[in-house]
Write a structure and sequence with these properties.
The protein is α/β, with parallel strands linked by helices. The strands form 3 sheets. Strands 3, 4, 5, 6, 7, 14 and 15 form a 7-stranded mixed beta sheet that branches. Strand 11, helix 7 and strand 12 form a beta-alpha-beta unit. Helix 6 runs parallel beside helix 7. The longest helix is centred in the C-terminal third of the chain and has 21 residues. About 5% of the residues have low confidence.
């Protein structure tokens, strides 16, 4: 029998408590459940492929996709392991046969993986690793989002709207937009507290409360009817029409998730695509191959890491919990009250 490690799994409600640990690799992908279904168990320790490193995980970050995957609502890529989690920090323990030469055993790193971060060890391609700066804590490093900024082909002088403004990706995106001389940065959020955070702490121009305002009409009001050049959306169904209405002529709408669903309601008017010459595109970083992941990693290192070093970019961590409290961590994310990352530590 090979080496084992602890990892977060889900139990099947049909199993008795004493049998929860059985069949973890099988049922974590094939069942769904609430946050209370998560627990710590023992599973086989991963083995590295040729370009992989085995990283001993110090901390991991939570993402909305984790909640969706837990509920059986996220299309997990075939190369992903059963264990949840894509963001992590830790130390390199060993390698496969052909790793990148810039890494060595004992290096402190962080990065993105296809899955498996909710565990003591993770197998991850060295093309997806970044050296952790000495000034950055394990918790901060596990919360660095490699934002999908490049897909919108943003250029200085454009306007941009970030939905879910207080989410970790949008927090990074707002800072990137400001650094790249956006003409205006707009956000949507569910409370005035979150809007104030985006404006006062991050530098957004203004924001709109989706619970009390018609954000698409407000966007048109503040832009004199022009709309915004780039919209980055994580909501999907409920925001589809509003995005079309709020987009400027020759604008781009980038859809990175669909928290409200993927099926459009009856009556959606797609005429704006033609009238405004809009471009709509979707992307999932998790589905990208290692080559693309490596290019994105290099972009992060070259473009963003110096700004983390000099303090221009900040990582906002809302809460740090030991991974034994993974249920509490998932419930906190589900509450939609947070501003920034929720991090779990392993120690």
């Amino acid at each position: 029998m090979g080496e084992t490690m602890r990892a977060v799994g889900k139990y099947q409600r049909t199993l008795s408590r004493q049998n929860w640990t059985l069949g973890l690799h099988n049922y974590i992908k094939n069942t769904k459940g609430p946050a209370s279904a998560l627990f710590l168990s023992s599973i086989p320790k991963p083995k590295p492929k040729s370009t992989d490193a085995i990283v001993k995980v110090k901390a991991f970050g939570l993402n909305r996709m984790d909640l969706l995957q837990r509920e059986g609502m996220y299309p997990v890529p075939p190369q992903a392991p059963a264990t949840l989690g894509v963001e992590f920090s830790g130390t390199i323990e060993s390698f496969g046969g052909e790793p990148e030469r810039s890494f060595k055993v004992g290096d402190e790193v962080f990065g993105l993986a296809y899955g498996g971060a909710y565990a003591e060890f993770i197998a991850v391609s060295t093309h997806m690793l970044v050296h952790k700066p000495g000034h950055m804590s394990w918790e901060e490093a596990a919360g660095v989002p490699e934002a999908m900024y490049r897909i919108a082909e943003f250029t200085p002088g454009k306007t941009i709207l970030w939905h879910a403004g207080a989410s970790s990706v949008s927090i990074a995106g707002i800072q990137l937009s400001k650094a790249d001389s956006a003409a205006a940065i707009y956000v949507t959020a569910g409370s005035q507290e979150k809007i104030d955070f985006c404006v006062k702490e991050l530098g957004a121009t203004t924001g709109f409360n989706y619970n009390t305002q018609n954000w698409s009409k407000e966007i048109l009001n503040v832009t004199d009817g022009k709309g915004v050049d780039v919209i980055v959306d994580f909501i999907g169904q409920n925001y589809f029409q509003g995005n079309l209405d709020a987009a400027a002529r020759d604008g781009r709408i980038v859809n990175l998730a669909a928290m409200s669903g993927t099926k459009l309601p009856e009556g959606v008017d797609i005429g704006a695509f033609f009238r405004k010459r809009l471009r709509f595109e979707g992307s999932s970083l998790r589905s990208r191959d290692e080559e693309y992941q490596g290019r994105l990693r290099d972009l992060l290192v070259e473009h963003a890491m110096p700004k983390f070093e000099n303090g221009e970019f900040k990582i906002f961590v809302e809460k740090v919990l030991p991974w034994e409290k993974i249920v509490e961590a998932h419930e906190l994310m589900e509450s939609n009250t947070t501003k920034g990352k929720i991090i779990c530590t392993i120690g």
